[in-house]
Amino acid sequence: MFNFTPLLGARTESAASQSLLELDGGIKILVDVGWDEAFNAQRLDALSEHVSTLSLILLTHPTVEHIGAYAHCCKHIPLFAKIPVYATTPVINLGVTLLTDLYASAPLAASVIPSSTIATNNASPADASTNLLLEPPTADDIATYFHLINPLKYSQPHQPTASSWSPPLNSLTITAYGAGHTLGGTIWHIQHGMESIVYAADWNQGRENLLPGAAFLSGGQEILEPLQRPTALICSANGVERNETLARKDRDAALISLVRETIAQGGKVLIPTDSSARMLEIAFLLNEAWRDGLGGPHADTYRPARVYMASKTAKTTVRYLQSMLEWVEESVRAEAEAAMTKSKGQGALRDPMDWRHVRALERKGQVDQVLGRDKPCVLLTSDKSLEWGFARQGLKAMAGESRNMVVLTEEVRTIDPRRKGVGRQLWEAWRGGQSGKASGVKVVDGNGVPIEWAENSTTALAGDELALWETYQARQRQLHSTLQGDNTMIDPTSGDLADKQAAGEDEAADASSDSEDEDEDTEHQGRALNLSAQLTQSHKRQKAAEALTEGELGVNVLLRSQNAVHDYEVRGKKGREKMFPFVAKKSREDIFGIVIRAEDFLRAEEKDDVMGEDLKDDRSTVGGKRKWSEAAGGRGGKGAQQGKSKRARVEDGGRGKKGGGHDDIDAAIARATGEGDKEDGEDDFDSESDYEPEDFGAAGPQKVVSTTQELQLHLRIAHIDFAGLCGMRALQMIVPLVRPKKVILTSGSESEVQALAEALRPGMADGTEILTPKDGEIVEAGGDSNAWSLKLSRQLVKRLTWQNVKGLGVVALTGRLGVDPTTTQSSAVDVKAETKEEDDTPKKKKARLVKEEAEPEQATKSSAKPDDAHTALPILDLPSSSSALASIQHTQPTRPVHVGDLRLASLRELLTSSGHTAVFAGEGTLLVNNVVIVRKAGGGNGRIEIECAVRGLDVAGRSPGGGMGDGGTFGAVKRAVYGGLAVVAGV
């Protein structure tokens, strides 16, 4: 049995995807950590409730809908970063570039702190209604989180590792298969016991220019064998109501024709799409079109125009693609490998990975220069929702010119119930506008249609807002330490904190002693500054602990509560919440004497500076703020230059260079993308004008400020479907071929899910159930829906004869089923598991049975109550008499059963080692000594057939003449086959 619960995106307008699988034994698997462009942290509350019980996480696609909340959860949800995560290599690499671009471009991606959460005893929710932002993960944080993900390859079964608090996985196996739609997109096959689960969210069976198709079909019209007949097929319904779908070649031709017509008129084309996954497919197509167009009849049209891929991580995305050729479409990979391995004597071969006609833009200044020029261009930007990324900048600059065009690549959903979003408004303007045709595609003129344009910006906090933000952060840090068992967040008056302070002082002393050229004053100031920082931090922790409620403290309420609390409810708790929060005290003495606390020897003015709310602004005071040049003494020249900001260094004389040491990386990417080949006025962006500071690491806490204005649209709007998802027709053909026992539809709007369910029902086999749960609705989806539990009598257990099959014990039995009211469920022998471990030897089993028989009968009788009869499990016992046994055997005779699966390859090795000649004569056929044929029967039932290939052989396999050339072959093969199976006879 297993339960399925959609956490986000099921039968709603949200495009996010989060699903929870609960298997037998308490195993919980989270599939995808998606988000939507609203970036509302409250939508992740359902996920945060299950984090402490999750066993592992699986990721499917490198898109916002599938991994958008991964970095947010790792940073702000306790224990989330400690859960094992599995994904393919492209999902990991492209996920880094996607989230780095997201947090560098979208202020709202950090998520607004809910007013109800930030309110404290001194501040009401009305006072905390400002849009304070959580601390966003930095670029280093994102890289660290994705570095922890375990990479997998396609079609390789893997037994994952569970989290430290998870129950055993019991031979759980996960296998990744290609899903199409994105590079490295995954269909997950999860095998656990008798349950076979296929999770296929957002897949595309048809191959594209750069991306391969899904792996459901293995040549011809047969489904891949491991994916056949699963217990449940979990499938998304996104995009099944599309009516403007075209074949791949027609779709590509329509886009190229539409772009060519626009740039021929001197206009610009804006194509908002996914930041890294789907952008690669369109960029590959445009690069090929420009390469062919410059040598074709429309060369004059293509020559002055340029193709730009604009995102904060465009160059990194292209560089990752160069190293992931094994994941792209097979013909593209073969062509790229041939181009890389060509010899000098051969002619120039076409390299599909040479994107010399696509220029990467990563800075706002570069995009402004492109948009400010009176030259045609194609701007491929992030994101399709137009809520973040360079797509907003491009649309605002191009909206007033009727020659320009925006091409929507897929339908955009409503961002939030309170607002539609820019992308949704463009989609509705295209659907409701006057139809016009261009290159066979519907094109709508803007004609001054107004849309609501929301602009978000950030500003630093000050005053009461800063105090609220600091209080919230202190409460969250304390909550994290409480849940994760971090003993560093304890009462500052305890001895353990003193030990940590002393240890920190020793480390500071060791570090200062290593540098012999540093003078004594600098060393003293460094040690005192470290100490003051530790004391200040402990003072903040003490204030944070006082602000926590007893519910947030958990079991630590026994030690840290301000009130007298002497008891704590531990029933139903897990992990450290079940144990008393004992803190081990470190020894205050060692063989060298007593540890000295340096804070006991501080002067009075130093203590005031450290423990006070505000430090004095006197830079000469120990612990006060200092300049690097002042601390470095006579070395202020170099230190002052290093202490300046990045922008200051550039303005002081580094204008000709890029800060941060990016020259080598940019040059390498320029060579890989062909940017170094300037031709016909190729763009040359000045490093002075387009220099921008780093987007991450903004100064201090911030809040978001939103302004709304009206934007008039005069450009043209078109739509060409580049979503790369299976349509209704493909789903109706493939899903019945999979033959699932149950189909679960998720990740789609209400109308899409219902439409797909109605379309699949006529083609499914009888008995197949189609489930359409909503967010938070738990459905039982296991195939073991008619399982019953019973217990065996001790007399029957003694007569069982177990047969070993691949490490498991199997037995067949016949008995009489009855009810034993004198025994309860707790004293029963559970037979729900039909196998036993191999190491249960007869000696151990005998000892266990003797121990059970020696138990006092009074305990059994006392445990049984008059009202326990209905809770007692049925008991299977030996037939009461020989006549009853004969009656049972007469009505249902028991015959020996062969259990197991024999591999012909193993049989061939066994026969070869015995001196026979065994060769494969076809698929599933083995020929032994040119006499005996061993064949696996079709139908997938595992039946093995043994035939004689030579006429005239007797039953023993000997010829009438008594020759020994083939004598005994049939019998030897038969014995070898039976040796690989277990003969199970009834008792």
From TrEMBL:
Bias (Basic and acidic residues): 648-665
Compartments in which it is found: Nucleus
One GO CC term on file: mRNA cleavage and polyadenylation specificity factor complex
Biased composition (Acidic residues): 504-522, 677-695
Keyword entries, A-Z: mRNA processing, Nucleus, RNA-binding
SMART domains according to UniProt: Beta-Casp (SM01027)
GO biological process terms held by the UniProt record: mRNA processing
A Gene Ontology molecular function term of the record: RNA binding
RNA-binding listed as a keyword: yes
Region (Disordered), start-end ranges: 483-525, 613-701, 822-871
Main location: nucleus
All copies of domain Beta-Casp, residue ranges: 279-426
Keyword Lyase belongs to the record: no
Top-level division of the source organism's lineage: Eukaryota
Similarity-based family: Belongs to the metallo-beta-lactamase superfamily. RNA-metabolizing metallo-beta-lactamase-like family. CPSF2/YSH1 subfamily.
Protein name (Swiss-Prot/TrEMBL): Cleavage and polyadenylation specificity factor subunit 2
Organism of origin: Recurvomyces mirabilis
